[in-house]
TrEMBL record, chain C:
It comes from the Eukaryota. Belongs to the CNOT2/3/5 family. It is found in: Cytoplasm; Nucleus. Component of the CCR4-NOT complex; distinct complexes seem to exist that differ in the participation of probably mutually exclusive catalytic subunits. In the complex interacts directly with CNOT3. Interacts with NCOR1, NCOR2. HDAC3 and GPS2. This is CCR4-NOT transcription complex subunit 2.
Length: 148, 517, 47
C-alpha cells in the first residue's frame, strides 16, 4: 500500500558511486597481513574438485590427523596464522618440541643419556626447515631454557 | 594554509626512509629498533616540533600513500595480487608507524595523548578519503583507505598491555570515524566500509570481548547507518546489481549477528525496525526472529499450545531505546498521557490521525518513527495497567480501555497507507515469548475480531501473510499469532470473502495454513 | 519470497560462533585456518 518512492538526486548519486565501486570490491586478503608464502592466488580448478575446505578442517582434531611433514609445511609456510598455531599444537601432541634457539622442532629419538635441571643430552630428530628434512643429531644438548 | 616550504620533500624523504627501515631485517621485532632510529630522524627534521607539523606530516604521508596506490592501480599490466603487494608494501609500513607513534606517544600511563593522536590520524585519513571521494567521483578507489583502517585496527587490537588499557577508547575512535565515513557520506566506500565493520576482529571486539556490552550501542549505530543508506533502494524492491550485492552482504552480517549475538539484535530491534523500510520483510523478519540464547522456544506448531501459560510472557523484553522520547511534540505526548489516564480530551482520538500525518505525498504521509513509538508506548502502558489490576493480557483484559480505544481508532480512522504502518508497528512486536509479544498478539487478534469492516480484517491478514510467505526465518510471535487466527473458530477466518477472492489466493492461504498447522 | 538465507554460505547450525571465521560480506564460504591472522609466539615467526 505504500507504493513506489522515486529516488531523488542524492540517491541516484549514491547508486552511481556504488555501481563504480562495484568493479573493485575489496578482496578478503585486503583485511589480512601479507602472506609471504602461499598468498591467496585463487586459480580456477576443475569444478568437480572440492571447492570448500572439508568440514572440521579448522579443528585441532583434524590437524592431529595430518602427517608430520604436512604439519611442518603448515608451520613454516603459514606463519602468523591460526593454521600455524594449530599445527604447532598438533606437533606437540606428537611429542615434538619447538626449540627457539634454532627455531626448529626436536623430538627425542631415544631416552636421553643425561638429564639435569637445565638440559638433557641424547639423540634427537630435528626438522631442518632450510634443507627441509628430518635429521638425527647424536649427543645433542637440549637446553630447556630455549624451549618455547 | 599552505604547507611550509620544503615540508612536502621532507615528508616524502622520511616516508621513504621509514618504508625501507620497516622492511629491512634489522627492523627488529615489531619494528621497534627501526622505530627508535626513525623517531630520531623525525626529531632531526623538526616534524615533531608542533602539533600543526605533525598534522601536516600525516596528511601529506596519507596523500602520498594514496597517490602511490592510484598509480599502481592504474598500471593495467600487473595482476591484482602484484598491485596489492606493491600498495601494501608502503601502506602496511605507514600503518606500523602510526600504531608505534600512538603506542609510544606520551608516557605509558597517559592514554589521553595516545587517543588524541589516534583521533587526529583517523580524522586526517577520513578527511583525505572524503576529499578524494568528492574529487575523483566514480574514479574513486577504496583500496588504500580500507587497508589503512583495517591494518591499523588490527595492530591497535593486538594483545599488548598498553593497548588493553585504552581499548575502549580505540574502539570509540574507530566507530566515530566509521560513522563519519558512513555510506551516505561516502557511497563509493560502502563495500569497504561494510567489510570493515563486519571484520571478525572488529565484531569480536565490539560485541564479544568488550565487557558490559559497552560496544553494542556504537555497533548498532553503524548498522543503522548502513540500513539508512540501503533504505531508499530497498524501498522500491528493484535493486541494481551493486545494491543487491551490498544488501546480500548486509544479510550475511545480520545472519552472523543472529547466530552469535541474538541478544544484541533483540535489544536494538526497535531502532532497526525504525529504519528498515516497511516493505523490506525478510531483513526485518531476520531481526525479529532473534531470541535470547538462554530461552527455549516452545514449538509454535504444537497443537493446543497454551501461550498464556508460558512463564516468559510475563516478562517484558529488554529495550534499550528510549522510545517514549520519540513521541513528539511534547503537547501531543501530554494529550496522549491525559487520554490514557482519563479518556480526555475527547478530541484526542479525532485529532490522532492529523498528529501522525506529516505530508500529503502518497507513500510518505505518515511519520513511521512516530507511529512505531506511539504503538509501543500505548502498548507498554496497557500492559502496566493490566498488571496493576493483577491481571495478565488476554483477549478480555485488553478490551475496553483507553489504550484499546486508541488502537481501534487508528484501525478505523487511518487510510490504507496509515493502517498498514500502524499494523506493521504492532507486528514488529511479535517476537519471542515476552509480555510485549503476548499483548500485541492479543491486540492484533482483537482488532481482527472487533473490526467493523472486512477491509480491516483483510489488511491485518495481509500484514501477517506477507511476513510469512518470505523465506525463513519467521519470528515465533508471528507464527503463533497467525496460527491462532486461522485455527480459532471465533475468528471465523475461513469464511471471509478475501480468503476466497481468487483460487490462487485461496491456495496460498491453504499452503501457509498447512505449513503452520 | 526474498533470498533463501541458507544459501549464503553460513553454517547457521554451527555450535561454534560464526564471526571468528567470517570471511567477508561478499564471500560465500568461511575463512580457512591459514586465512586467519593469529597472535602466535613471536619465536614462530621464522621468516
Amino acid at each position: 500500500p505504500l507504493g513506489r518512492q522515486p529516488l531523488n538526486k542524492e540517491h541516484l548519486y549514491h547508486l552511481a558511486m556504488l555501481d563504480s565501486s562495484y568493479h573493485h570490491l575489496p578482496h578478503p586478503s585486503d583485511s589480512e597481513r601479507l602472506r609471504h608464502y602461499l598468498p591467496r592466488n585463487p586459480c580456477p580448478t576443475a569444478a568437480y574438485y572440492p571447492q570448500l575446505a572439508p568440514p572440521g578442517a579448522d579443528t585441532l582434531d583434524f590437524f592431529q590427523r595430518l602427517s608430520t611433514e604436512t604439519l611442518f609445511f603448515i608451520f613454516y609456510y603459514m606463519e602468523g596464522t591460526k593454521a600455524q598455531y594449530l599445527a604447532a599444537k598438533a606437533l606437540k601432541k606428537q611429542s615434538w618440541r619447538f626449540h627457539t634457539k634454532y627455531m626448529m622442532w626436536f623430538q627425542r629419538h631415544e631416552e636421553p643419556k643425561k638429564i639435569t635441571e637445565e638440559y638433557e643430552q641424547g639423540t634427537y630428530i630435528y626438522f631442518d626447515y632450510e634443507k627441509w628434512g628430518q635429521r638425527k643429531k647424536e649427543g645433542f644438548t637440549f637446553e630447556y631454557r630455549f624451549l618455547e | 594554509f599552505d604547507d611550509p616550504p620544503g615540508l612536502h620533500e621532507k615528508t616524502e624523504f622520511l616516508l621513504r626512509e621509514w618504508v625501507n627501515m620497516y622492511h629491512s631485517p634489522a627492523a627488529g621485532r615489531d619494528s621497534t629498533k627501526a622505530f627508535s632510529m626513525f623517531v630520531g630522524q623525525m626529531h632531526q627534521q623538526g616534524i615533531l616540533k608542533t602539533d600543526d607539523l605533525i598534522t601536516r606530516f600525516f596528511r601529506l604521508s596519507t596523500e602520498m600513500c594514496v597517490d602511490l596506490c592510484y598509480r599502481a592501480l592504474n598500471e593495467q599490466t600487473h595482476s591484482p595480487t602484484l598491485i596489492r603487494a606493491k600498495c601494501f608494501h608502503t601502506l602496511d609500513a605507514f600503518v606500523r608507524l602510526i600504531s608505534l607513534l600512538v603506542k609510544h606517544s606520551g608516557d605509558s600511563t597517559n592514554s589521553v595523548t595516545k587517543i588524541n593522536l589516534l583521533n587526529k590520524v583517523l580524522g586526517i585519513v577520513a578527511g583525505v578519503l572524503l576529499q578524494d571521494h568528492e574529487v575523483r567521483n566514480t574514479e574513486f578507489q577504496q583500496l588504500p583507505y580500507h587497508r589503512i583502517f583495517i591494518m591499523l585496527f588490527i595492530e591497535l587490537n593486538a594483545p599488548e598491555q598498553v593497548l588493553d588499557g585504552i581499548n575502549f577508547q580505540i574502539l570509540t575512535a574507530f566507530c566515530n570515524t566509521f560513522h563519519i565515513l558512513r555510506p551516505r557520506k561516502a557511497p563509493g566506500f560502502a563495500y569497504a566500509w561494510l567489510e570493515l565493520i563486519s571484520h571478525r576482529v572488529f565484531i569480536g571486539r565490539m560485541l564479544a570481548i568488550t565487557p558490559q556490552q559497552r560496544g553494542w550501542g556504537m555497533y548498532a549505530q553503524l548498522l543503522i547507518d548502513l540500513i539508512k543508506f540501503l533504505s531508499p533502494f530497498l524501498r522500491n524492491a528493484d535493486l541494481t546489481k551493486a545494491a543487491q550485492l551490498l544488501y546480500k552482504g548486509t544479510l550475511r552480517v545480520l545472519l552472523v549477528l543472529l547466530h552469535d549475538f541474538p541478544e544484541f539484535l533483540c535489544d536494538y530491534h526497535y531502532l532497526f525496525c525504525d529504519v528498515i523500510p516497511p516493505n523490506c520483510i525478510q531483513m526485518r523478519n531476520l531481526i525479529l526472529s532473534a531470541f535470547p540464547r538462554n530461552m527455549r522456544l516452545p514449538d509454535p506448531f504444537t497443537p493446543n499450545l497454551k501461550v498464556d501459560m508460558l512463564s516468559d510472557i510475563t516478562h517484558p523484553p529488554r529495550i534499550v531505546t528510549n522510545f517514549t522520547n520519540m513521541i513528539q511534540p511534547a503537547s501531543f505526548k501530554k494529550d496522549l498521557d491525559s487520554y490514557l489516564k482519563s479518556r480526555a480530551p475527547v478530541t484526542f482520538l479525532s485529532d490522532l490521525r492529523s498528529n501522525l500525518q506529516v505530508s500529503n505525498e502518497p507513500g510518505t504521509r505518515y511519520s513511521i518513527p512516530l507511529i512505531n513509538a506511539l504503538v509501543l508506548y500505548v502498548g507498554t502502558q496497557a500492559i502496566t495497567y493490566i498488571h496493576s489490576k493483577g491481571q495478565t493480557p488476554s483477549m478480555s483484559t485488553i478490551a475496553h480501555s483507553s489504550h484499546m480505544d486508541i488502537f481501534q481508532n487508528l484501525a478505523v480512522d487511518l487510510d490504507t497507507e496509515g493502517r498498514y504502518l500502524f499494523l506493521n508497528a504492532i507486528a514488529n512486536q511479535l517476537r519471542y515469548p515476552n509480555s510485549h509479544t503476548h499483548y500485541f498478539s492479543c491486540t492484533l487478534l482483537y482488532l481482527f475480531a472487533e473490526a467493523n469492516t472486512e477491509a480491516i480484517q483483510e489488511q491485518i491478514t495481509r500484514v501477517l501473510l506477507e511476513r510469512l510467505i518470505v523465506n525463513r526465518p519467521h519470528p515465533w510471535g508471528l507464527l503463533i499469532t497467525f496460527i491462532e487466527l486461522i485455527k480459532n473458530p471465533s475468528f471465523n477466518f475461513w469464511n471471509h470473502e478475501f480468503v476466497h477472492c481468487a483460487p490462487e489466493i485461496h491456495k496460498l492461504f491453504e499452503s501457509v495454513a498447512r505449513s503452520c498447522t | 519470497p526474498g533470498i533463501d538465507l541458507t544459501t549464503l554460505g553460513l553454517n547457521l547450525n554451527s555450535p561454534e560462533n560464526l564471526y571468528s571465521t567470517f570471511q567477508s560480506p561478499w564471500a560465500d564460504s568461511p575463512c580457512r585456518p591459514q586465512d586467519i591472522d593469529f597472535h602466535v609466539h613471536s619465536e614462530y615467526l621464522t621468516n
